[in-house]
Hints:
Blueprint: E1 13-17, H1 22-33, E2 37-42, H2 45-57, E3 62-66, H3 72-86, E4 91-93, H4 109-137, E5 140-145, H5 149-152, H6 158-178, E6 183-190, H7 196-201, H8 204-212, H9 222-232, E7 244-247
Parallel strand pairs: 1-2, 1-4, 2-3, 4-5, 5-6, 6-7
Helix pairs in contact: 1-9, 3-4, 4-6
Amino acid sequence: MSSSEAPSLENQSIIVTGAAAGLGLAAGELLAKRGAAVTLVDLNTAKVEAEAKRMADAGLNVDAQVVDLTDRDEVQGLMDGVAQRYGRIDGLVNLAALYQPCEISEMSVEFWHRIVQSSLDSTFFTCQAALPHMTKAGYGRIVNTSSGVVLMGGAGWGAYCAAKAGVIGFTRVLAREAGPAGITANVIMPGLIATEHALETLDEQAIQVTTAMQCVPRLGEPDDIAHPIAFLLSREAGFISGQTINVGGGMNYL
């Protein structure tokens, strides 16, 4: 599909979390290229501001916001500020997460809470704070993020799997509750994607074993995730809600 044939996001106000690198950066840039006014959100001030400047210098409509997504008040301020600036919030993409392994037998309560807060609590806070603005407009698109690790049950990923499985259940309920207001909510479930952080975490053998189990035997690229996100944010995706879209190269988890 060429850019001229792709669903337009012209003049849409879209918030992307975890946008300083990896999947969030790829999604934010693609959405801006599709015509959206994109608010890039991250806790890494230097990176998110540098990426926003790079995109703005290329003529894209982007803004950087540094927000602790585990702080409910900061999240509320973010949503209210974006709604005031653009007049509405059309789309929300939750890609922020901590990707850290730890076996259950060695896991501290503090580690558990940190991982769950970064993926599940932040998703709850952002969705809840965006809902009134979307409901008022009678329109909204929400895309949350799970992980193929949820289906695989990889050793060392107990807290991460629990949080990402929670995102799926939460989003199904959100879709049911928000649907009458014209809001859709879906989940993207990425497989093994060649982000800098993932490549640092996994060794070459793990990558080879994983890709060999896929129908498409290669590492995914961040754009492989960004494109389905862009579609789910479009008006053309208005009859898709409460779904989990597995984007993992046809991985067989059984």
